[in-house]
Specification:
- The strands form 6 sheets. The chain has a 5-stranded parallel sheet, sandwiched between helices.
- The longest helix has 21 residues, at 124-144.
- The chain folds into 4 domains: 5-56 and 66-274, no CATH class; 280-343; 354-411 and 420-433, no CATH class; 456-645, no CATH class.
- By secondary structure, the protein is an alpha/beta fold.
- Helix content is 45%, strand content 12%.
Length: 647
């Protein structure tokens, strides 16, 4: 063991015996002073929506005194972290996160404790003891220095680098842990706050199964000893674990051990039913609250724009992202553009199905898992069809399958008696994202049957775009290609650049075009705009043609100026950063140089006499192309007529 001369001197001069609790605390505070130095303690909460006015409750749960495990299970962005921060803002407690995705958001001590435990699982109990001992000692010291309000203790743990000048919890942990192991020091936890919250708990489930609980030889991930020992310290009756995914078998396994039973700590509560998508009225109220707190002058105009933008309605993070982007740019259209970029780009941090995308990329088998007489993939596909027809869907998944669906971001759990009975999809953004991940032809194959049985479809845009895209590919490249076609994950510009004949593009909602297909067989780029309406005025026909014009992509239909957030910009050195419209035009020009032609097409289905011509674009309608859908089914036009009659 390496101990510095100054440390040896301090121990000798003070006659410390590190096996005595008071001396161990004195030595830890000596290390604290060395680590922090002369830094003036203190910080402030960030100005983002997550930390804005934590004293103003945005979540409903009230902490009780029942000595059990509270499981907060909800999809990413639903408000789990906000709930924990609000509770810790009003009650003294400890905030841990298994791994933070943000700089200086929670200490990294638990993550490094996890690494220690994975490398030497036989020392797991001791490592966790050191982790909690450091946290308890530092927080008690802060209390003695006058930082005795719950919000101050929370702030020190939430932003330790800002508060101490360094992540003191992490540095003390790695400074003391090896010394404690070598000297076999088992620190005692004394004068603890009764409340512990651990965020991002799902990451502790994904670790290698290196751990055994007492009296068992079954190997488990880090999650099991983390939960087990936290309760068995007998110091934290209020214990919350929060995450996008929970392994209920591991929870039951830990609670049913003889040690836990002897201590009568066998209960848990699932709090998922407290989380649900925000209604439109709640979106409006939340946006108004944030904007008024920030003293934004044109508050009501911005609230109305967010209210009208249905794609962001649902989980709180969507609305918060737009509000924080507005704070950054000072322009609501730029904020919405940033949101659209994030939610339609599988590689962006706000993409809500990132875990599902990761599973697919790693050839995971979750989608192929058998549930009853079905597979999860088909259950989700049928859910997408339900969403198109009814505007919402309910996935019949239970237990771990349902927990995994929440982890993957699909929706919110329906809970009764601490059991998840299913997962509900209510958010337009999730449907938008699922289009990039789920098999295209399987959706189309079932649409005709669904329309026939339920012609009053709620999501007409999705229905028509699926049918038109499949018919387009089948008519130009053949049925075999259409049956294997995929919706590209890429931006439109990247899609046009890459030579992949098995993909079609559904541009984001601000582009203008609804379907773009680069057909290698005909050497043509087809640009489709779909219209499914009861009738079209002369101006609406002009708009349809303009919307399909690449030169007017990402442009205001009236002024024909590029939308805010999509225009070209300049960096600090004066270099041009091309916007989406410019990038698409560059790729189209290159394709034309390579011999491709561009064909602008407007698909029109109306309840009145079918339109056969539009200036500036070819028209696909019941009159002009009666056989357009025949590769899908011969009665599609008639089925679309029945949908129109139900408007």
């Amino acid at each position: 063991m390496h101990r510095s001369p100054s440390d040896q001197k301090f121990i000798a001069e003070n006659g410390l015996d590190l096996n005595r609790s008071t001396d161990l605390i004195k030595y830890t505070l000596y290390q604290f002073a060395k680590t922090v130095g002369e830094c003036e303690l203190g910080a402030s909460f960030n100005e983002n929506c997550l930390e804005l006015r934590l004293d103003q409750r945005r979540t409903e749960y009230v902490l009780d005194d029942v000595d059990d495990i509270k499981i907060v299970l909800a999809p990413s962005g639903a408000g789990k972290t906000r709930m924990i921060l609000e509770l810790l803002h009003e009650s003294l407690g400890y905030y841990f996160t298994v791994k933070s995705s943000q700089n200086d958001f929670g200490s990294i001590d638990l993550y490094h404790c996890l690494i220690y435990c994975q490398n030497k699982p036989e020392n797991t109990h001791l490592y966790l003891s050191v982790l909690y001992f450091v946290r308890v000692t530092v927080c008690n010291h802060l209390m003695s220095l006058g930082f005795d309000q719950p919000w101050q203790i929370l702030l020190a743990q939430l932003h330790p680098n800002a508060f101490f000048g360094i992540d003191v919890f992490y540095y003390l942990f790695i400074t003391l842990v090896d010394e404690f192991v070598i000297m076999k020091i088992q620190p005692k936890l004394e004068n603890c706050f009764p409340f512990v919250a651990i965020d991002e708990i799902q990451l502790s489930i994904e670790t290698a199964k290196n751990h055994c609980l007492p009296e068992s030889s079954n190997m488990r991930p880090f999650f099991s000893p983390l939960v087990f020992f936290t309760k068995m310290f007998r110091k934290f009756p209020r214990f919350i674990v929060a995450g996008t995914g929970i392994n209920f078998e591991l929870i039951k396994d830990a609670l049913e051990s003889s040690t836990m039973k002897a201590d009568q700590r066998t209960a848990y509560q699932v709090l998922s039913k407290r989380f649900r998508p925000l209604t439109k009225a709640e979106v409006v109220e939340y946006a108004r609250f944030v904007l008024q707190e920030r003293r934004v002058e044109d508050c009501e105009a911005i609230v109305q724009r967010i209210s009208d933008f249905n794609l962001c309605h649902g989980r709180a993070r969507f609305v918060a992202f737009i509000l924080d982007q507005y704070k950054k740019w000072g322009n609501i259209e730029c904020a919405i553009a940033a949101f659209i970029e994030g939610v339609t780009n599988v590689n962006c941090s706000i993409f809500p199905l990132a875990f599902l995308k990761r599973d697919i990329d790693k050839n995971g088998q979750w989608l192929n898992r058998v549930v009853g007489n079905d597979t999860i993939s088909r259950i989700i596909r049928n859910g997408m069809l339900d969403f198109i027809m009814f505007g919402q869907a309910f996935l019949q998944l239970q237990g771990q399958d349902a927990s995994d669906a929440i982890l993957y971001g699909l929706g919110f759990g329906e809970v009764s008696n601490n059991t998840i009975d299913g997962v509900r999809i209510d958010e337009l953004a999730i449907m938008e994202c699922l289009r990039y991940l789920m098999p295209f032809n399987e959706i189309v194959a079932s649409l005709a049957e669904r329309i026939a049985s339920s012609p009053k479809a709620q999501m007409i845009d999705y229905l028509v775009e699926y049918l038109v895209a499949f018919a387009l590919v089948a008519n130009t490249s053949g049925l075999d290609v259409a049956r294997n076609i995929k919706i590209t994950h890429r931006s439109v510009a990247d899609y046009l650049r890459v030579n992949d004949a098995n993909q079609v593009s559904f541009p984001d909602p601000m582009c203008g075009a609804d379907v773009i297909y680069k057909c290698v067989k005909t050497m043509t780029v087809y640009i489709y705009q779909t219209n499914f309406v009861k009738g079209m005025t002369k101006q609406e026909r002009v708009n349809a043609c303009n919307t399909n014009d690449p030169n007017l992509f990402y442009c205001n239909r009236t002024t024909k100026t590029v939308l805010k957030g999509f225009e070209d910009k300049h960096d600090a050195l004066g270099n041009v950063i091309k916007g989406k419209r410019t990038l698409i035009l560059d790729e189209l020009r290159q394709l034309q140089r390579d011999g491709f032609t561009l064909q602008q097409v407007v698909f029109v289905h109306t309840g009145e006499n079918q339109i056969a011509k539009l200036n500036g674009a070819e028209v696909v309608s019941k009159t002009s192309h009666p056989n357009f859908f025949d590769y899908i089914a011969q009665n599609i036009w008639g089925l679309l007529d029945s949908v129109t009659s139900k408007f």
